[in-house]
Specification:
Distance between the termini: 23 Å
Largest sheet: none
Structural class: mainly alpha
Bound molecules: protoporphyrin IX containing FE
Radius of gyration: 17 Å
Strand content: under 5%
Number of helices: 5
Number of strands: 0
Shape: elongated
Number of domains: 1
Order of helices and strands: HHHHH
Helix content: over 70%
Length: 139
């Protein structure tokens, strides 16, 4: 049973990460094309669907399966650190939602350079999270 929870956990992680890495990239190009009506509308639809139907459900499954795995393996330093990093990843997810709202209201203030820069945030967090879960330091 625990192995099936871990399988679902990893699949949900991959889906969530795909969105966290792709959505800021969409913002890079969208922020350069807001004056083109057709493209602006297309980007808005793509961003909303990616966030609403892939990223948000996947994030919830990551948290539910992650906490179930945590419950079965007990408190360990590496898991507490991991949960802290995933909490930061979740704050980033919420920030992306705010950006979607800004674009929808044609009120985006961030430059494409800014979105290129923040694209590195989920990558960096992901690397440290995977190091923690594979090496399990301070076990
Ligand atoms: C609140 C969120 C999370 C919690 C509480 C959590 C907790 C856990 C626990 C307890 C395990 C089992 C470790 C083992 O038995 O070896 C696990 C496996 C794993 N987690 Fe998470 N996790 C969370 C989110 C994430 C995220 C966001 C990622 C990636 C970015 C991730 C990547 C993995 C991977 C790759 C495994 C499989 C490791 C292995 O089998 O060696 N997890 N997680």
């Amino acid at each position: 049973m625990i192995l099936w929870i871990k399988i679902i956990h990893i699949v949900a992680v991959i889906s969530w990460m795909a969105g966290l890495l792709y959505l800021p990239r969409l913002f890079v190009y969208h922020s350069e094309k807001t004056s083109e009506e057709q493209l602006n509308a297309t980007f808005k639809a793509m961003e909303y669907r990616l966030f609403r139907f892939i990223m948000s459900p996947a994030m919830m499954v990551v948290w539910i399966t992650g906490l179930a795995l945590f419950y079965s393996s007990g408190i360990q330093v590496w898991i507490l650190l991991k949960i802290f990093l995933v909490f930061l990843m979740t704050l980033f997810h919420i920030f992306l939602k705010k950006c979607i709202k800004n674009f929808n209201e044609d009120n985006n203030k961030f430059s494409s350079k800014f979105f290129r820069f923040i694209n590195e945030v989920p990558t960096t967090l992901m690397v440290f999270i995977v190091i923690l879960v594979v090496l399990k330091p301070w076990l």
